[in-house]
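Researcher: Structure prediction, please.
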Amino acid sequence: MNSSIIIRIRKTVEGFSFDSLLKNQRLAIFMICLVIATILWMLNALSKNYTTSISYPVRYINLPDNKFIINDPPKQLDMRVNGHGFTLLRHKMRLAFTPVALDISTILDEQGIQSRGGYTIVPSTVLDRISGQISSDLQILDVKPAGISLVFDSLETRQVPVKPNIDIQFRSRFDVSGKISTRPGTVEITGPRAVIETIDTLYTRRRILKSVDKDVIKEISLIIPKEIKSKTEKVTLFVPVDEFTEKSFQVPIRIDSLPPDRLIRLFPQEVTLHFRTGLKQYSFVTPESFDFYVKNSDLQSGQISLPVHTGKVPDGIKSLKIYPLHVEYLIEKR
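Model: Predicted structure follows.
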């Protein structure tokens, strides 16, 4: 019995075509009436009020001054709403919703609450604020979760230095001729106190500079930890570069804190220097640019020879060699 019914249905479906529909006027009229009836039924159904559930993402804005959320509050609100079928259908068909914004400072001010370590927002007490962002055609009956717990931590601001993270590969005879720096050299960061206290330096993203033979001026991004905010996201890197050549001369050795009643003779009285310097400052580097001395305290200790101490060396000097490193001496009374 069942098999015969299936066979009859199959034959009816296989024999159906638009041509047969056009030829069979009764069937065509029936189908048109069915479509019209379906549309009228849907219009009638959608004109009525229904209750259903929808979910909206939520974001928390305008936090109290110098406060930061450290817990993980809900990322969406589940609401039971009532409204016309057309309005509900429109909301159901949307693929994405604009997040509901909860203005935390305003909510706390309206309810006369001083924010400290934390606070629980009851969504049912701010339904008007939520409803105004969703649709005036929907009536919110219930909101879950019933309470939104926010735990605050204090924000702290401090200045930290910037340190470049770079690898420079120079062409032959070229090198850094001065201090590598960034502009600005320090940046202001803001974040939870517990995190800020662990940060004493911000580093730039690693950069590799190849075949360098002139000054480097490049914009470079900072590595800013996730919990930290900074208005400065990039700095300008400056690397002074020069071509270097060798130079040498002799510099007198002075005696630090020489006793007035004694005469000290050093052997030798000068040190010989060998070093590399940039061509840009070659003519400016003179014996007066350096300072080497022996200490009176070493004399008092009765050492056989005195170590030569370095007092001043110009910036940009490379591969400095000093000879001798110790000198002999003779003490005479005046």
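Model: The chain has four domains: 2-46, 49-146, 155-239, 243-333.
Researcher: Thanks, that helps.
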